[in-house]
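Worked example

This section walks through a single chain of length 71. The input is the sequence exactly as stored; nothing has been trimmed or padded.
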Amino acid sequence: MIVPTAGLMLVALGVAGVRYAPAIVESQHRQGMAPLEDETIDDADRVRATKGTGLVVALVGVGLLAYWFVG
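Given that input, the structure is written out below as tokens.
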């Protein structure tokens, strides 16, 4: 029962990360949490990296769900 629950949670977190990536990056700027404050990494790159991370998390969740469904 833990595998499908973990899979669903990871899919939900990944989708939320992809959906709210611009808001996450903006919130990091407001709170001073951006790791690099120079101009070599612009906001579009940060949003793209956040969306990519969310996509990977969602895919891991889908993999867990597939593993549970097949197994």
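What to look for: The chain has a mean pLDDT of 91.
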